Amino acid sequence: MRATLTRWWPRRLSSRIVALFLGLLLLVQLAGFAVVHASIDANARALLAQDLAVGERIWARLLAQRAGRLTLGASVLAADYGFRDAAASGDLDTLRSALDNHGARIGATVTAMLAGDLSLRAVGEGTDPGAVDALRPLAAKLAEQGSALALVDGQPFQVVMVPMKAPVLVGYVVMGFPLDAALVDDMHAVSGLQVAVLVEGAEGAADGARLVLSTLPAALGSELRAARAAADQLQLAGQTHLLRQIDQAGSPSGMHLRTVLLRSLADAVAPYRELQATLGVLTIAGLLMASAASIVTARRITTPLRSLVRASERLSRGQYDQPLLHTGRGNDDEIGELARSFDHMRLSIAKQQDEIRQLAYWDPLTGLPNRAQFGDAVREALELAADTGRPVSVVMLDLDRFKHVNDVLGYAFGDRLLQGVARRLATQDLQPNEMVARLSGDEFALLLPGRDATAALRLAECLADAFLLPLTLDDHTVDVTAAFGVACWPHHAGDAETLISRAEVAMYSAKRKTAAALVYDASLDAGSALTLSLLSELRRALEHDELRLFLQPKIALVGPQAGRMVGAEALVRWMHPVRGMVPPMHFIPFAEQTGFVRQLTMWMLEATAKQWPELEALGLQRVSVNLSTRDLMDAELPLKLQRLLQRYPMPPKALCLEITESAIMDEPQRAEATLTQLSAAGFKLSIDDFGTGYSSLAYLKRLPVDELKIDRSFVMAMEKDEDDAKIVRSTIDLAHNLGLSVVAEGVESAAAMARLAGLNCDEAQGYHMSRPIPAAEMVSFALSWAARQQPDDDAPQENAAIAFSA
Amino acid sequence: MTTTRILAFLLFALPAWAAHAASVEIKAQGSDGKPLAHTVVFLESRDAKAAAKPLSDVEIAQAERRFVQRVTVVTVGSELRFPNRDKVRHHVYSFSPAKTFELKLYAGTPANPVLFDKPGIAVLGCNIHDSMVAWVVVVETPYFGQADAQGALRLDNVPPGAYRLRSWHAGLPPGAAALDEALVVAADGASAVVKLPLAGSAL
C-alpha cells in the first residue's frame, strides 16, 4: 500500500503542489457533480411524478371537456325537432334511422334511445345491438353523470346520455364516441406526456393487454403492453420512463380500460443535463485555470528552490562568485528570505574561504606568501618552464643567529625584525613573476623564473650586500646577516620539492661555510648520490673496522699535576682502504647531517672505554669525547652510556663529554635535560668552543657543566691581540668564579702555554703539546712529554701543527 | 247471503238511481299526505263515456311565454284554440300519442282549432321556448275537475253508480297514466281520498 502510494505520489515538489491542488479541486467538483447528479435525478423524478399527477388531472379534464362537448352535441341533437318528431313517431325503424343519422352528425358510432325509465327503446341503425347491451349496466350511472368511458366491443368509447324532452322528459339519447388519436394527441400536446390507452383482457393480466391508442411510436407498444398494471416505472427503448396508470372503466366481460401516462426520465432530465454539461465545461475550465494557477504557484516556489539547489551545488564546488537569484525586492516571501540568507551564507563562506586561503597561503606576520603558496608557485613556474625551456631558480635564505635575537630581544622584536627583512626583500627589484615568500621562522625564499643559477647567485649576492646595512628597529640597530642558497631547474632538480630542498641544502652549506651565497652542488647534499655512497662507505668503515681512535693529550697547567698529561680528547680517524686517511672534515659534517654521527659517537665511546685501562695506567684522569647535537637530542643517551660503561672498567667520572655551545643552543631545554641526567650519572661535562656561540652566562650557569673549553680562535689570537687575551682571561676568571675548570685548546706555542698558565688556566691542549695521535702511541708520547718537561723545548710541536693542518 | 243480495240489488238498482244526482268530494294528497293542488280527477264509467260531450271555446293561451292553463282537462272531441298573446311567435307541438299536432310559428290565434279526439294526456311544448310546457288531459266523461290549492275537489251532479276514479298530476313521471281506482257513488254522493305517488311538497 505504502509503496504504491509512494510510486504514485510525485517526487517533484511542483508536481506535488499541482497534484494536491487539482486533486482537491477535482474532489470538490466530483462531489458537487455527484450531488447535482443525484438531486437532478431525484428532482426530475419528483417533477415527473408531479407532471404525471397533473397529467392525470388534465386527462380527466380533457375527457370531461370532451364529454361536455359531446353531451352538448347530443343535447342539441336531442332537442332537434325533427329528431324528436322521429322519436315520437313511434316507428322503430324511423327512430333507429333517425338515431343513426343524427348520431353521425356529431360523430357518434354507437347510438341508442332509452325510455324515461332507462329501458331500451331503440338502437341506432348502424349500431350493434350487442354493443348497446354492454352499455346497459351503465345507464343508471349515465343518467346521473351524463357521460362515462366504456368498452364497447373491446374498444374504448366515451358514452354520453342526454335526456330528450318534448317538452317533458320522454327518454334518453345515448351516444358513444370512440376514443380517437386526436384525443391522445391533444393530451400529448397539452401535457407533454405520452399517452397510451390499453385494454386488458378478462383476467386483467398484463400479457393480455392490447394497445388501443398511443402517442408512442408503434415499436414501443409491445414493450408498454408488457408493463404491469401496478408498475410506475418502465424501461422503454432503453430509457427509464415513469408511468401513471389510470383505471378508467371496465366492462361486464371483465375487460378493463387503462390509460397510461408516461414520460421518459431522460426527457425530464434533459434540461438539467444541459445544465450539467455547462457545469462540466465550467469544471474543466476551472480545472484548467486551477492547474495553470497551481503550476504558476508551484513554479514560483520550485524555480527559486531549483536555483537554490544549483547555487548550493556551485557552493559545494567552491564557486562563490555568482550571486543568488530571487534575492531582490520583489521577493518578500519565505523563498526570498531563504534566497537572501543563502546569499548571505555564500558571501560569508566566500569570506571565510578567503580568510582560510589567506591563512593557508599567506604568512600573516609579513604578508608574504607562505611555504604552501611558494611551493605551488614553484610548481606552476616549472610547468610553465617545461614548455618554454627557460630555467627556474630558487634562492633560499636563512637569517643568522635569529634565534638569539628572539632570546635576547624578545619574540615581539623578532617578529618586527622578520617584517623588516620581508620589507627589505620585497623592495628588491624583482620581476612581476618573481616571488618572495617566508617559508618558516627566519627562512625566506625567492622564486626566480627565467634566471639561471648564475643570475640567481648574482641576485643573492646583491641581497647579501643589502643585508650588510643594519636594520634599525625601536632604537636598536641590528646587524642582520643571512646565508643564501641557490638551486636551479633543470640543472639541480627536476621537480619543485627537490628544487626547494636543494636550495635549502645550498643555504645550509653556505651557513656552515659562512659564505654569503652558494649554488647547490651534489657534494653538499647528504641526500645526493655522492653522499649516499659516502654513507654506505662509512657504514662499511664501521663494519670493517676502518675507523681509528686518535687522542690529543691535555696537559695540566696549574696545581700539583702541572706539566703532566692529565687527560686527552678522543678523536676519530678513518683509515680508508683505498683513499688512505680521510680527514675528519670530509665525513664528520656529513655524519652530523645524516645522523650517522650517533653511530660514530657510540663507536668513539666504546673505543675510549676499551682503551681506558691503558690510559689510566699512563696517569690520565679522564678522556673527553665530543657529543654532537644529535647525540644530545637522543633521550636514550644517558642510558646507553651507562650500559656501555658497565661492560668496561671505566668509571663515569673518567669520561668527559664535550658539547659545543651551538649544540646546546639549538634546543636549550632538551639539552639541559640530557645534561642534567648525564651529570647525575657521574659524567663530566664540558662546553666546547666556548665564546663562539651566543649562549648567555646566565644560562650556562644553570647547566651542570664542570669545564669550559676556550675556543682555539681566541687562544691562537691571544698573543697578537690584546682584546682576545682579555677575553681569555676574563673567561677563565668567570669560569673559575662559577666553579668550572678551564681548558684552552689551540695552544700552539710554549709562550701561549706559559701565558695560559699565568692566567691560571687549568689545562691546555694543542699542537704545542701534541697533535692527535693513535691511541697506541699514547705511551710513547707520555714518555717523550715527560722527557720534554725536563729540558724546556717546544719547537718540534710547532712543526707538527703545520704538518697536520695541511 | 244477505250481502250478496244487497250487492246484487245495488248492481241492478243503480241505473234506476241515475236520474238522481249526487256530489263526490275528493281530497288529493301526495305520498307524504300533503294536499296536492292541481290534481286532475275524473270519474269514468260506461254511462259517463256516453254522457260526455265535446267542449267548445276551450283555449290554451300563450302569455309571457307560458301556457295559460298549465293543465287543461277537456272531453274527447273538444277543439282547442291556442291564442298567442305574446309578441314573439310560438311553435306549439305535441308528440303525445293522445294528440300529435304542430302549430308552426304563428302569432295571434291560429285559424283552425286543434281537435283532441282521443282520450289521454297530451304534453304540449313550444319548439322555440323549451321551458314552456302544458298538459291537456282528454277524458271521456263529463265528471272531471282539478283540485284547488287545498287539494280538494267537488264533483256535482254525478249520478250514483260505480265509477273508476282516475287521478293524475303533472308531477307524475312523463307518460305515466292516471291512477285508476274504483269508486261507488251512492245517492247521497261519495267522498274519497286519492294518494298520488309523488310528494306534494315537491311541487
TL;DR of this structure?
The complex is a heterodimer of chains A (806) and B (203). Chain A has 806 residues and is α+β, with helices and mostly antiparallel strands. Chain A folds into four domains: 9-288, PAS domain (Beta-Lactamase); 318-360, no CATH class; 362-525, Alpha-Beta Plaits, CATH 3.30.70; 532-805, EAL domain (TIM Barrel), CATH 3.20.20.
Distance between the termini of chain A: 100 Å
CATH architecture of the largest domain in chain B: Sandwich
- What is the straight-line distance between the termini of chain B? 48 Å
Q: Could you please say which CATH topology of the largest domain in chain B applies here?
A: Immunoglobulin-like
Care to describe what's here?
The complex is a heterodimer of chains A (806) and B (203). Chain A folds into four domains: 9-288, PAS domain (Beta-Lactamase, 2-Layer Sandwich), CATH 3.30.450.20; 318-360, no CATH class; 362-525, Reverse transcriptase/Diguanylate cyclase domain (Alpha-Beta Plaits), CATH 3.30.70; 532-805, TIM Barrel (Alpha-Beta Barrel). In chain A, 52% of the residues lie in helices and 21% in strands. In chain A, the strands form five sheets. In chain A, strands 18-19-21-22-23-24-25-26 form an eight-stranded mixed barrel, surrounded by six helices. In chain A, strand 9 (239-250) and strand 10 form a beta hairpin. In chain A, helix 2 crosses helix 7 (181-191), helix 9 runs parallel beside helix 10 and helix 24 (712-718) packs across helix 25 (722-737). Chain B has 203 residues and is mostly beta strands. Chain B has two domains: 1-51 and 143-203, Immunoglobulin-like; 53-139, Immunoglobulin-like. Chain B contains two helices and 17 strands. Chain B has helices spanning 2-17, 46-51; strands at 22-29, 40-44, 58-59, 61-63, 66-68, 71-75, 78-81, 90-94, 101-106, 114-116, 120-126, 133-139, 144-146, 152-158, 161-168, 179-185, 190-195. Chain B has a five-stranded mixed β-sheet, with no helix packed on it. The A-B interface holds A 79, 81, 84-85, 87-88, 90, 115-117, 165-170 and B 91, 93, 95-97, 100, 123-127, 130-133, 173-175.
